[in-house]
Design brief:
This protein is 27% helix and 25% strand. It has 463 residues and is α/β, with parallel strands linked by helices. It has 2 domains: 171 residues, VC0802-like (2-Layer Sandwich); 221 residues, Vaccinia Virus protein VP39 (Rossmann fold, 3-Layer(aba) Sandwich), CATH 3.40.50.150. The strands form 3 sheets. Strands 2-1-3-7-6-4-5 form a 7-stranded mixed beta sheet. Strands 10-9-8-11-14-16-15 form a 7-stranded mixed beta sheet. It has a two-stranded antiparallel ribbon with strand order 12-13. Helix 8 links the parallel strand 8 and strand 9. Helix 1 packs across helix 2 and helix 1 crosses helix 7. The radius of gyration is 26 Å and the shape is elongated. It comes from Pongo abelii (Sumatran orangutan). Its EC number is 2.1.1.214. InterPro entries: DNA_methylase_N6_adenine_CS, RlmKL-like_Mtase, SAM-dependent_MTases_sf, TRMT11, TRMT11_N. Belongs to the class I-like SAM-binding methyltransferase superfamily. TRM11 methyltransferase family.
Amino acid sequence: MALSCTLNRYLLLMAQEHLEFRLPEIKSLLSLFGGQFGSSQETYGKSPFWILSIPSEDIARNLMKRTVCAKSIFELWGHGQSPEELYSSLKNYPVEKMVPFLHSDSTYKIKIHTFNKTLTQEEKIKRIDALEFLPFEGKVNLKKPQHVFSVLEDYGLDPNCIPENPHNIYFGRWIADGQRELIESYSVKKRHFIGNTSMDAGLSFIMANHGKVKENDIVFDPFVGTGGLLIACAHFGAYVYGTDIDYNTVHGLGKATRKNQKWRGPDENIRANLRQYGLEKYYLDVLVSDASKPSWRKGTYFDAIITDPPYGIRESTRRTGSQKEIPKGIEKWEKCPESHVPVSLSYHLSDMFLDLLNFAAETLVLGGRLVYWLPVYTPEYTEEMVPWHPCLELISNCEQKLSSHTSRRLITMEKVKKFENRDQYSHLLSDHFLPYQGHNSFREKYFSGVTKRIAKEEKSTQE
């Protein structure tokens, strides 16, 4: 059936990667710019074609200035499951909405886009000629047209079973493209200062979008590493700040990560990374600090906390303490004597993430967001294992597979309640607490799976 044109509808053409991350990104950005998702817009699945009702073209353009999950957006003029339905839909589209883009002084061109099928040039021309009934009065300009229109055909998701006819056909006026080029221009391969776990550029921008990072925000990363997440947030105009327990990483010292380079250079540091992209003015500072014992005064400082904590695989999970330290509890918050030099101790994953949630609940402004990665052992994962806090509401939970038996989940939470002292230990009363402690053995389970895979591969080669 053709769509009714009574609503202001737009067609999003989505990229076909990080599929689980797409919907939370678009929802977060629409919320940031004053748009809203309707209940009928919740089930897109893996399709690259999404129809949205957006209040205005300005919001649509703002959306595309941020998204890395969407390729393009079009003002939808018609839609059908066959050419006949498409043409009928176009004939019902209000002429007064078409006229501003089709008058005699304008120039235009029509493009054909197909998903999961390649058309010949003759087939494309045939589809363009079939649109002659539209009231185009301007001149065709293939190089620099004022207006671009597109026919988009969807041939499904199965490359091994391509249908003769498309499942859906869309026609719309191109509005804007997304920010897919940021993935290449900010690629870690081209970055001045990198480490073993530097975050992929595309995922960094997705995290910043999930966190609704905007101009003049203050964004914090308590496990800053080489600062990849700070770069993405600074690109969107936020002032960035971070801490890390590793002195050498914070100061750009020690062995280099790059192949054929033994030691890091004198200007390999986080500030230099932001300078590389013209973002140094957004750099506040990065300090050597232990995330388990934050030294902040009580207060709300941050609009967003965007971070990728260590999982104990390529980077160790560490905190400061004493070899004679009493069991973790309320006493851990007592201050050490000034003369005490703390040693590095292991830091359980469950403790790390619960500390992170408490810190976010204390220091985020109301409405501020916490975005972080949670490693999971897939065979044992349940939603109850996601850390919980009374001041934070879960917004989204997206999976990225790491191996056949492990994955990490991008968790986005929003502060909805003012922090009170009693909230610090509320997790002990939560049903989530005991299941989540299972993450403490994530490292052992990860390497157990690697060992089994290697043994299986060796057995198959011997046979």
